[in-house]
């Protein structure tokens, strides 16, 4: 008898910080262009950061009535989850996961540190056809301060140990703001996670600023999964759609 998991196809994932649907410095609202670009990647699971959940914070955002993650998901990703992190008088934004597979559970974990920055970890549990075990996906957006990031990384490891079975496939992706590249050791030691570009090429990808990437801020980490040829998506059209270059990878569970 053939093992269904052995013949199950790989899944494609991507991660991108969409900057609330605006170009750098909020000069132009480009969410419709972003949707077209995300669609062309053909990813099965998309990790999004800085997603508007309720419009009104920017007047131009009123050009799209529904929450931005719903607009992006449209008919391509029938399942999505949103974690609200930042709330202001006329709206809020946070992280989102869009999936072609059923999301059977999701929870947003507040990992904000004292101060104005509000951050969260959105944990989704996905049911992937052909796989007996659920896939766990965590969308991450960490703080700008080094001391805050270190605490948030420890909270992420604690959450993985407490909520993700040791033998379950796990993908952690997003904007880590880890320009000093200190997250690798913490996540490997504390949660058994390996960064896909480090595994494939020896170092994490440079993603910021998107036009001339110098810093390695965006990451994809996996556990109990293998990765084939992770890529930084090309500057055209992405360099004018986000200040972060998106990442994509083929994941074998």
From TrEMBL:
GO molecular-function terms, A-Z = endonuclease activity
Keywords attached to this Swiss-Prot or TrEMBL record, sorted alphabetically, are: Endonuclease, Hydrolase, Nuclease
Pfam hit, one: Exo_endo_phos
Supply the source organism for this entry: Ramlibacter aquaticus
Gene3D superfamilies named among the record's database cross-references: Endonuclease/exonuclease/phosphatase (3.60.10.10)
Annotated Endonuclease/exonuclease/phosphatase domain residues: 14-244
Query: In the UniProt record, does the keyword RNA-binding occur?
Result: no
Under SUPFAM superfamilies, the record lists: DNase I-like
- Which protein is depicted? Endonuclease/exonuclease/phosphatase family protein
């Amino acid at each position: 008898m053939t093992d269904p998991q052995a013949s199950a196809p790989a899944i494609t994932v991507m991660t991108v910080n969409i900057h609330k649907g605006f170009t750098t410095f909020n000069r132009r609202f480009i969410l419709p262009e972003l949707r077209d670009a995300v669609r062309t990647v053909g990813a099965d699971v998309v990790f999004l950061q800085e997603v508007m959940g309720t419009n009104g914070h920017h007047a131009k955002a009123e050009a799209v009535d529904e929450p931005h993650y719903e607009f992006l998901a449209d008919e391509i990703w029938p399942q999505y989850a949103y974690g609200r992190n930042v709330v202001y008088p006329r709206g809020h934004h946070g992280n989102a996961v869009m999936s072609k597979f059923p999301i059977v559970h999701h929870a947003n974990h507040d990992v904000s540190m004292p101060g104005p920055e509000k951050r969260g970890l959105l944990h989704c549990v996905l049911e992937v056809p052909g796989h007996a075990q659920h896939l766990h996906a965590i969308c991450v957006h960490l703080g700008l301060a080094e001391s805050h990031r270190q605490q948030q990384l420890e909270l992420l490891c604690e959450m993985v140990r407490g909520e993700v079975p040791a033998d379950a496939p796990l993908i952690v992706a997003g904007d880590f703001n880890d320009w000093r590249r200190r997250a690798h050791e913490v996540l490997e030691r504390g949660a058994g996670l390996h960064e896909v570009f480090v595994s494939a090429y020896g170092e994490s990808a440079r993603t910021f600023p998107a036009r001339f990437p110098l810093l390695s801020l965006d990451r994809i980490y996996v556990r109990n999964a293998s990765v084939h040829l992770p890529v930084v998506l090309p500057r055209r059209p992405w360099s004018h759609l986000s200040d972060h270059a998106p990442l994509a990878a083929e994941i074998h569970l």
